[in-house]
Amino acid sequence: MSTSELPADHAELMDGVYRWQRHIYDLTRKYYLLGRDQMIAGLDVPANGTALELGCGTGRNIALAARRYPNARFYGLDISAEMLETASKTIAREGLSGRVVLARGDATDFDAKTLFGVEHFDRIFVSYSLSMIPGWEKTVSAALAALAPGGSLHVVDFGQQEGLPRWFRAVLRGWLKKFHVTPRESLREVLESESRRTGATFRFRTLYRGYAWLAIVKIAN
Q1: Which of 20, 34, 131, 215 is the most exposed place for a label (fewest CB within 10 A)?
Q2: Looking at residue 75, which CATH number applies to its domain?
Q3: When comparing pLDDT for 81 and 187, which is higher?
């Protein structure tokens, strides 16, 4: 999908949300986007491997992952031009421009070959983005289709806060709604269904009493 074909409404919405927030995003989100570092630690990107982040945002995660796996190549996709501007600065500041490539695209419908010159990836990761993407189920399917044999999809996002007090869940949901974020109640079900459909293995963890969910879908060699 070319930049001109991006879903304009959602792209404009994300640019509007993050036009100013992107400057303080990493400072504030570290307090409630929990589980991101656990996800990165579990990527286990092979030497000379490739990894794609869908919804790369400010570049915080992809920069951490690139430093952790110095022999791999990384690619980042986001629908927001505003976020990509910040991500580009992050990658340049960290001296990672030679190993990290960024592109603007729709995570529900992307052509990796056209965007990056790479058709399949050893790892694909999505951090707190599915809860912001309309038609997020398509992102799961698109990600699995873009994995190389033996590759894996890693997802961390808001859970259902099932082990936390109801008042906490209500306050959190109200706060997230201001930023067009909706925790996906059926996330585990969709990932399990897609794992069965593709013959992949599925691992799932609840973090912090259900505050966050962490999942890995690994396809066969």
Answers
A1: 20
A2: 3.40.50.150
A3: 187
Total residue length of the chain: 221
- What is d(CA 31, CA 164) in angstroms, rounded to the nearest whole number? 17
User: Alpha-carbon distance 9 to 53, whole Å?
Assistant: 22
Q: How far apart are the first and last CA of the chain?
A: 28
Helix axes 60-68, 81-93, angle to 10 degrees: 30
What's 30's DSSP letter? T
pLDDT tens readout for residues 151-179: 999 999 999 999 999 999 999 899 888 88
Q: Measure the CA–CA gap between 216 and 108, rounded to whole angstroms.
A: 19
DSSP 3-state of 12: helix
Which long-range contacts does 20-23 make (Cβ < 8 Å, 24+ apart)?
22/57, 22/58, 22/82, 22/83, 22/85, 22/86, 23/86
- Whole-number pLDDT of residue 17: 46
With a cut of 80, say whether residue 32 has pLDDT above it.
no
Distances (CA, A) of 144 to 75, 76, 88, 139, 154: 16, 16, 26, 9, 10
Instruction: Name the amino acid, one letter, at 53.
Output: E
Instruction: For residue 132, give its domain range.
Output: 3-218
Task: DSSP for 197-215, please give it.
Answer: HHT-EEEEEEETTTTEEEE
Is pTM beyond 0.70 here?
yes
Q: Which amino acid is at 151?
A: G
SS3 149: strand
With tokens 């927001």, the residue in question is 80
Q: Which amino acid is at 95?
A: G
